Amino acid sequence: PDNPxxxxxxxxxxHQVGKNExxxxxFDKALAVKPDYAEALSNRGNALRALGRHAEALxxxxxxxxxKPDYAEAFYNRGNALHALKRxDEALxxxxxxxxxRPDYAEALCNGGLALQTLRRYDEALxxxxxxxxxRPxxxxxxxxxxxxxxALGRHAEALxxxxxxxLLEPDVAEALxxxxxxxxxxxRYxxALxxxxxxxxLRPDSAGTLYNRGNVxxxxxRFAEALxxxxxxxxxxxxHAEVLSNRGNTxxxxxRFAEALxxxxxxxxxRPxxxEALSNRGNILHVLRRYDEALxxxxxxxxxRPDYAEALSNRGNALHELNRxAEALxxxxKALSIKPDYDQALSNRGxxxxxxxRYDEALxxxxxxxxxRPDYAEAFCNRGKVLMAQSRLxEALxxxxxxxxxxxxxxxxxxxxxxVLDLIEGCGVKQQQEERRQWYDSHGRKYAQSIxxxxxxxxxxxxxxxxxxSADFRRHAASFAFAPIIRLHDRxxxxxxxxxxVEPEDEDDVTAGLRQSAExxxxxxxxxxxxxxxxxxxxxxxxxxxxxxxMAGNRLLVFARKPAPVxxxxxxxxxxxxxxxxDYLFADPVVVPYEERGLFAExxxxxxxxxxxxxxxxxxxxxPLPAQxxxxxxFGCISRIEKISDGALRAWGRILAELPGAGLLVKGMxxxxxxxxxxxxxxxxxxxxxxxxxxxxxxxxxxxxxxxxHEIDLALDPFPHGGAIGTFEALWMGVPVVTLxxxxxxxxxxxxxxxxxxxxxxxxxxxxxxxxIAVQASRDLGSLARTRAExxxxxxxxxxxxxxxxxxxxxxxxxxxxxxxxENK
Length: 826
Hints:
38 helices
């Protein structure tokens, strides 16, 4: 009973079979008989360590070493206890003492490597593992740990090779399979990573860490529903895993389940309040939810913890941008770039802020820097195109948009921008414009044709109809002057109005309020997916659905591609057709779309008396006397987006001014606030023979200020090939006739349509020569021009487009006719 060696041996066996409490008891009995038994003290430490009693184990190893100072195994095990106690420097010293006694001690080299790795001394750790493997080439543990060190050094391919060697020796080690998956993830071999995680989970299904990593790789594979399920399995095992909750929020973000994503980030932050990534991503969700001030606060919380967090600084800039605080946004992007100079996303977003600040050349330089870092950055090419458009560099803009679309074929916004710029480029005809629209539908909309279903609308030609209007411009916007009176003046006995609004809350104004009051139902489309909006329109039993945006910003054409209403029409907002065969009709007139061209449009053309209506604002100034009759030089004027003013138009203006040496030119456009753009435009004027001394350039003003600018203009010159629309109405209501060149495209005939409906056919030119002649002759008959100016407003009030109620009745008649036709076909 008192044999110390037998007691010691029994303790070793008990430890080996996991009976560690019994092992400690047996070692203590041996030591009671033989107090200086170093081996028993060391093995007692091993049993205590297995029980998690590391401090007691350390004492036991120290007692053993006091008895036997050259006991390499005791130094090694002592190192293991210190490592468990997170006393890594001391652990490393203990491993080194074991190695000083026994240089070929492979286990001490391996665990010494782990201590070095914990101390972030990865190169030294790697050297230690390599020494261990030189002694024992088949040491699977050293190969596995070596993989961890290589992974920490970013040498993922080598790490993968090390894990594979370890797994050849010991195939069923779940941790090695899981970490192998991590290396494959870093190497972007996502499918292989997923297979490795699944093998690990087959061995150890309760590994929250592996389930978390598996969720990450499923996220990368865009298998978001599966990623979410993997995160949820991890949380069932480890509910307090903050990283899982944060990444789960990212996946919910992708699934557009924004409220749930926000809740997931908040749960992560309740566990770890200083989790900067979760704070930043939480800000991103609040941004999507348009809670920009809250998003800003979340980014600021992250930056208070980590001031050099470039991603949070860039995202903070995005929130400031949405709040129209562009200078502050720019400062935030610049700070992000001072930390991370090659941050392509921050450079691109910086370009957007500079664009808003009208610092166009700097914006281009920022986009170009982003593209030098990431040549396949489609969004940067698209935004770069917008700047080039603002600078009237239309061919360059077109090239940039096409590059964006080549890189990202499903980039519908870039494709819409191509359509927009083709409407401005000289020499681009109706056939090419409409073909590009058809290609847009083929690339982005046709795939939704399969979702078109039968309708539950009551088939009755004479019943009250539900008319749905879809727009992001239910606010004080040029387009709203055309469609707002129709919405307001509908016959409520025959028509019920539903508005689907994409207006941001901060952009809502008095026009928004008036339209909301006029509609029986008002629904925000912000954060509503195309699928969900289409389903909502179906549930609302809309009979006729109006698109008021076409390819303009904020359009919902992909909803119209799903055809949620029996009859769909595009009108007024951007009226040159959409290319969608699922939109049945286009409101126009025979001037803008001659009969011989109608086969080129995807929609059937419905003629209205004039394709546009216009209701002037309540602050419309009085008509002023003709400026030239007060002795001032005769002033031609153009108030327009500068990109509409082609070199051909400038050439015609140059010819006009050449015939009238005393006349001047006033041009107003917001792009002229940018000094570089102003300089470039003056250069273009000079190339057309128009001296700077003869030109007055005005930048952005309030809308009331814009209207008052007509007090200084004797005769308006319509740009071409993209003429005016609402701008033409504004000139006429201010008593200023407009000379227009009726061209070969829809957008070049809008002013001709308006002038025709006004009975002002003599102001419509059929050629550039005619355009110049009309302008010159009008300037030489001031009496006639003054009489026209004085009577123009009363003349417009007698037109169909000046009578909003009569125009609305014409629209309602078209609605009723097309609804009856649908019922008959049904």
